[in-house]
From TrEMBL:
NCBIfam families: dxs (TIGR00204), PRK05444.2-2 (NF003933). Pfam families: DXP_synthase_N, Transket_pyr, Transketolase_C. The keyword Phosphoprotein does not apply. Mg(2+) binds at residues 148, 177. InterPro entries: Dxylulose-5-P_synthase, THDP-binding, Transketo_C/PFOR_II, Transketolase-like_Pyr-bd, Transketolase_BS, Transketolase_C, Transketolase_CS. This is 1-deoxy-D-xylulose-5-phosphate synthase. Its EC number is 2.2.1.7. Pathway: Metabolic intermediate biosynthesis; 1-deoxy-D-xylulose 5-phosphate biosynthesis; 1-deoxy-D-xylulose 5-phosphate from D-glyceraldehyde 3-phosphate and pyruvate: step 1/1. It catalyses: D-glyceraldehyde 3-phosphate + pyruvate + H(+) = 1-deoxy-D-xylulose 5-phosphate + CO2. Catalyzes the acyloin condensation reaction between C atoms 2 and 3 of pyruvate and glyceraldehyde 3-phosphate to yield 1-deoxy-D-xylulose-5-phosphate (DXP). Residues 316-481 form the Transketolase-like pyrimidine-binding domain.
Length: 619
C-alpha cells in the first residue's frame, strides 16, 4: 500500500505544475490507487474516474486553474480533479453526509466552476463562462470536458452549434472511451469510430500545426496558412471532421493516457484564434483489471472487494420487477415497446433488450427525444413504455406536456429512482416528478409501495389508462411490510384502526415508515389509521371522502411541498368543507444533499421515529 508520497504533498494545482515531468507517472499511479481504495469503501463512479487520471493531470498542468476554468460534464469523473485541487485530505469523505460531493460543486471549491450531475451541460456552461470573460476583458481559457456519450445529448449539440460561431479561448475536450454506461450508441458513436480508425491525415495535420506553432512570432500566421492549406487539401481529397464544419479547430485523436501528447495539444489549442475541440481517446476503467474488463459494472458501483472485484449482489429491486413485468407483457403483446435513454441496466430493461430487439430502443442520453419519440410510436398504435430515472425525466417537461398529454397520446412512463436516492445527492434526488406532473391535464400517476403494487399499477397503466400515465417507484427494494397488510385496491387502501381520530395519508415507500410509526404509537397506547394512496393523480375521491371523518390528518410526502399531492388533497378536503386539521410534511423549498437514503429520510422527518414523535407531541 502506498503512502501517497507525491499526491499528499500537492496542496493545489500550482504544486502540480512545479512537479518534474518524470514524477507524473508515479503521481498517476498514486491517484489510481487512491481512487480504487476510496470507491471500494464509499461506492462511486470508478471506471470513468480511472479513465481520466492522465487527462486531469494534463489539464491542470497546462491550464492555470483556477484562473483558467475547467467545466466537467456530468462531473462523475471529477474525483482526480478534487484530489489535485486541495481536497486530497477530504477524499475519503466523498459521497458521505457532510463530506465531499461526488460531483463538482461551486460551494465546495473555487476550482469547481459549474455544478453538474446531469449530462450534456458543459459546452453551454463553458461557453457562457467564456463569453462572460470576453465581455469583462478576462483573457483566461475555458475548457469543457465532455464524454463521448454526453456529447450526443441534445443540449451539447445546441451548445456546440452556438459556440462554433464566436467562441474564443474556448476548448472542448471530447473524452472518447467508446462507452456510455453501456456501449455508446447512435450515429455519432459510429462517426467517432471512423475518426479513431482513420487518423493518419489528422495526425499529419496536427504535427504540421505543432511545428509551425513552435516558430516564434510567425507561429500564428503560419498556423493560419497551414489551416487554410489543410482545408484546401481536405476539400480536394479528404472529408472534414464534423467538428470543423461546426467552426471548431480539431486536434486529435490523441492518446488520453499520454500526458506529453495531451500537453502538446493543449498548448497548440491555446494558440488558435477560435474554438477548439481536442479529441482524446481513453480507456474506461484504466489501471484496474476488473474495471477495464467490466466498465459497465464499475461505472457506478457500491462498495467492493479490491482483490476480487466483487460487490455485494443487489437483491430483487423495483427496477428488476419492472423489467420482468415488461418481458411478460411483451411476449403476448406486440405493441409493447421499451425505451431507455442510456440507462438500460439501471432501469432493468437488459433482458427486454435481448428478447425483444426490434421493440427495444436505447436512444442515448436523450430524454426529450425519448418522450416525443414515444409519442410518435403511440400515434401509430404502439404502447411505448419509457423507463427513466425521476431526476432525468425533468429534462423532458415540455415534451411530456406538448407532445404527449396535450394530444392524449397513450405513453407510459416508468419513473425509476422516485424519491430520495442517497449518495448521488441533490442533482439526482427524485423529488420533483410529482409536482411537475401534478400540474398536467390528461395525466395519471401511480406511486406503489411494494412489488405487487408496482405490477398492478403497470397493468393498470398499460391496459386500463389513456393518455400520459406514470408509474413511479423508488431506488432499490421493498422496505418494511406489516404481516397483516394486504393490498386490496389498485387506487388506495386503508390500514390500521379505522375508528381512530387520527389519519396519516401517504404514498410510495413512506407507507412502510408510517406502518412502523403506527406500531410505535400502538405500543404507546395511541391507535391511528393510514390511508395509502396508490393512484395519486387524479386523486381517488372516495378516499378523500372517507378521510373526512378523521379529526386530525397528517400527509407525509417524499416530494416537494409546492405542487404536492398533499396540496391537491387539501383542496379536495376544503371543497368538501372538511372541519378537521390537515398537516403536511413534505420537502419544503430546499435541495436535499448527498447522504444515505435513511439519513436523508431522517433529516426530512420521514423516518418512523420522527413520524411517531410528530403525532405524539402534536397538540
Ligand atoms: C441527463 C442525464 N441522463 C442520464 C444520465 C446518467 N448518466 C450518467 S453518466 C452517463 C454516461 C456518460 O457517458 P460519457 O459521457 O461517455 O462519460 P463516461 O462515463 O464514459 O466517462 C449517463 C447515461 C445523466 N447523468 N444525465
Ligand atoms: C452519474 C449518473 O448520473 C449515474 O451514473 C447515476 O449515478 C446512476 O445512479 P444509480 O446508481 O442509481 O444507477
Ligand atoms: Mg464515454
Amino acid at each position: 500500500m502506498s503512502d501517497f508520497k507525491i499526491l499528499s504533498q500537492l496542496n493545489s494545482p500550482e504544486d502540480l505544475r512545479k512537479l518534474p515531468d518524470e514524477e507524473l507517472p508515479e503521481l498517476c499511479s498514486e491517484i489510481r490507487e487512491k481512487l480504487i481504495e476510496v470507491v471500494s469503501v464509499n461506492g462511486g463512479h470508478l471506471a470513468s474516474n480511472l479513465g481520466v487520471v492522465e487527462l486531469t493531470v494534463a489539464l491542470h498542468k497546462n491550464f492555470k486553474t483556477p484562473y483558467d476554468s475547467i467545466v466537467w460534464d456530468v462531473g462523475h469523473q471529477s474525483y482526480t480533479h478534487k484530489m489535485l485541487t486541495g481536497r486530497f485530505d477530504k477524499i475519503d469523505t466523498i459521497r458521505k453526509k457532510g463530506g465531499l460531493s461526488g460531483f463538482p460543486k461551486r460551494s465546495e471549491s473555487k476550482y469547481d466552476e459549474f455544478n453538474a450531475g446531469h449530462s450534456s451541460t458543459s459546452i453551454s456552461a463553458g461557453l457562457g463562462i467564456s463569453e462572460a470573460k470576453r465581455i469583462k476583458g478576462d483573457k483566461s481559457y475555458t475548457v469543457s470536458v465532455i464524454g463521448d456519450a454526453s456529447f450526443t445529448g441534445g443540449m451539447s449539440l445546441e451548445g456546440f452549434n452556438n459556440a462554433g460561431r464566436y467562441a474564443k479561448r474556448f476548448i472542448v475536450v471530447l473524452n472518447d472511451n467508446k462507452m456510455s454506461i453501456t456501449k455508446n450508441v447512435g450515429a455519432f458513436a459510429k462517426y467517432l469510430t471512423k475518426v479513431r480508425v482513420n487518423p493518419w491525415y489528422l495526425r499529419l495535420k496536427n504535427k504540421l500545426e505543432r511545428i509551425f506553432l513552435k516558430i516564434p512570432l510567425l507561429g500564428s500566421l503560419a498556423l493560419k496558412v497551414i489551416q487554410r492549406s489543410t482545408r484546401n487539401v481536405k476539400r480536394m481529397a479528404y472529408k472534414n471532421t464534423i467538428f470543423e464544419n461546426f467552426g471548431f479547430t480539431y486536434f486529435g485523436p490523441i492518446d488520453g493516457h499520454n500526458i506529453e501528447d495531451m500537453s502538446n495539444a493543449f498548448e497548440a489549442a491555446k494558440k488558435v484564434n477560435g474554438p477548439v475541440l481536442v479529441h482524446v481517446v481513453t480507456k474506461k476503467g484504466k489501471g484496474y483489471e476488473y474495471a477495464e474488463k467490466d466498465p459497465k459494472t464499475f461505472h457506478g458501483i457500491n462498495k467492493f472487494n479490491i482483490e476480487t472485484g466483487e460487490s455485494p449482489q443487489s437483491k430483487e429491486s423495483f427496477s428488476s420487477v419492472f423489467g420482468e413485468y415488461m418481458c411478460d407483457i411483451a411476449q403476448n403483446d406486440r405493441r409493447i415497446c421499451g425505451i431507455t435513454a442510456a440507462m438500460g441496466p439501471g432501469v432493468g430493461l437488459d433482458k427486454f433488450a435481448e428478447l425483444y430487439k426490434e421493440r427495444f430502443f436505447d436512444v442515448g442520453i436523450a430524454e426529450q427525444h425519448a418522450v416525443t419519440f414515444a409519442g410518435g410510436l403511440s400515434a401509430k398504435g404502439m404502447v411505448p413504455v419509457f423507463a427513466v430515472y425521476s431526476t432525468f425525466l425533468q429534462r423532458a417537461y415540455d415534451q411530456l406536456l406538448h407532445d404527449v398529454a396535450m394530444q392524449k397520446l397513450h405513453v407510459v412512463i416508468g419513473i425509476d429512482r422516485a424519491g430520495i436516492v442517497g449518495d448521488d445527492g441533490e442533482t439526482h434526488q427524485g423529488v420533483f416528478d410529482v409536482s411537475m406532473l401534478n400540474s398536467f391535464p390528461n395525466t395519471t400517476i401511480y406511486s406503489p409501495c411494494y412489488f405487487e403494487g408496482l405490477k398492478k399499477a403497470l397493468n393498470q397503466a398499460v391496459y386500463h389508462t389513456d393518455s400520459l400515465v406514470a408509474v413511479r417507484y423508488p431506488r432499490g427494494g421493498e422496505l418494511y411490510r406489516p404481516k397483516d397488510y394486504t393490498e386490496v385496491s389498485v387506487d388506495f387502501d386503508f390500514y390500521g384502526d379505522l375508528s381512530s381520530d387520527t389519519l396519516i395519508v401517504t404514498y410510495g415507500r413512506l407507507f412502510s415508515n408510517c406502518c412502523k410509526a403506527l406500531e410505535i404509537l400502538k405500543e404507546k397506547g395511541k391507535k391511528i389509521c393510514i390511508l395509502k394512496l396508490n393512484r395519486i393523480k387524479p386523486l381517488p375521491l372516495d378516499a378523500v371522502k372517507a378521510s373526512m371523518k378523521f379529526k386530525k390528518i397528517y400527509f407525509y410526502e417524499e416530494g416537494m411541498y409546492n405542487g404536492s399531492i398533499a396540496c391537491s388533497f387539501n383542496s379536495e378536503l376544503s371543497e368538501l368543507d372538511y372541519k378537521g386539521n390537515l398537516k403536511i410534511i413534505a420537502i419544503d423549498d430546499k435541495f436535499v444533499t448527498h447522504q444515505t437514503v435513511n439519513e436523508a429520510l431522517k433529516e426530512l422527518h420521514f423516518d418512523s421515529e420522527s413520524i411517531a414523535k410528530e403525532i405524539l407531541e402534536d397538540k
